[in-house]
Amino acid sequence: MSAFALNAVVAVVLTLILRAFKVKDTADSTRRSDYGADEDDPKVAEIERQAALEQGNPLAP
Questions:
Q1: Model pTM?
Q2: How far apart are CA 50 and CA 42, in angstroms?
Q3: What is the spatial distance between Cα 44 and Cα 39, in angstroms, rounded to a whole number?
């Protein structure tokens, strides 16, 4: 119960701080296909490649 209360307080405080600093809200980029993938699933490699490209990682495959 105390962990839930602590998490709730942290969430409220951080929300207030981020809103005070006018941090921009962004859309959740999680897709339904992102869930339930195993490490050796080819979709995982594709997701990691896309993420690396989006971040401008020069070592991206």
A1: 0.44
A2: 13
A3: 6
Give pLDDT, residue 16: 95
Q: How many CB atoms lie within 10 A of CB 34?
A: 11
C-alpha 14/C-alpha 8 separation (Å) is 10
Q: Could you give the CA distance from residue 28 to residue 5 in angstroms, rounded to a whole number?
A: 25
Alpha helices in the chain (DSSP H): 2-20, 42-54
Please check whether residue 18 is in contact with residue 25, taking contact to mean a CB–CB distance below 8 angstroms. no
Query: Any residues with CB less than 8 A from the CB of 61 and at least 6 apart, and which?
Result: 45, 49, 52
